[in-house]
Amino acid sequence: MSYTSKLFRGAALLIPLLCTGTLLFTCTLLFSSTLLAAPLVIPILSDYPIDTELTSQTLNGNVLHALERHSGGQFEFKPQVMPQSRAWKYIEENDACIFNQIKTPERESKASFTKFPVTLYPPIRLIISDGDRRWPTVFDPQAFNLPPNVQIGTVAGHSYGTRLDAAIAAHPQQFFRRTGTESSFRLNDMLVAGRIDAVLNYAVAVQVYLDEHHPGFKFNALPIKGAEQGVEGFIVCSATDAGRDMAALINGVFAQKAMQADFVRFHQQIYQGSEQSWLGSEFRRLKLPEAE
């Protein structure tokens, strides 16, 4: 039985207790209307606080706010900050969703992903301090052509794609795995302080954070062989009837032209220069009509 069906069944059982006599029909209509009007609360987990003060640079907050708004009161998100590794265990035992997750076959086998991505990122890069000459011009994860004894920051529980995940597993001594909340932010701080040598991240995400917290710090973003494609972030929900219902509601809202127009606008506000060309190709691949 689906989550929505359970709600209606529960309501049907309660109605006789609340309404009797000739008022039953009227009361039933009122009770049903109240039930239909109440939005479904969707717990949404992330390992960093999702912005509530929205600007042109708050991509994640903008997308979630637009999904709520375009749902017409069908649902509302309840953000919760939780470490990545714990969040995946949480949705196995509770009806909830995680924001901004990469699809992998393993993950798809145990959770319900939304049909549409909610965020688009350019290819992931190896972020190093500007002026650090030890590194190759292109990082090859398979050959692992890196200087010895370097420490590369990663977020525990994150997937970086097949090639990078394999390299991390094969060379664990050269990867520092940060746990806890706001891990990607703390890794940026560690790079600035010289406590690690590099981080795996998206250049635009690093730039936005550094502009606010370390405006004088300069970095280079090295390309990674085999990671030339952009990265899609999805909402993933529990593999239960309730989780599938949550994902289906989100899919229905994202299929709306108005939501897609907002999606396009939010991303165009973030990406500039050469990334605009990449972004246009992503819009066309996703068959977004505003990009045609």
Automatic annotation (TrEMBL):
Source organism superkingdom: Bacteria
Protein name per Swiss-Prot or TrEMBL: Transporter substrate-binding domain-containing protein
Annotated source species: Shewanella jiangmenensis
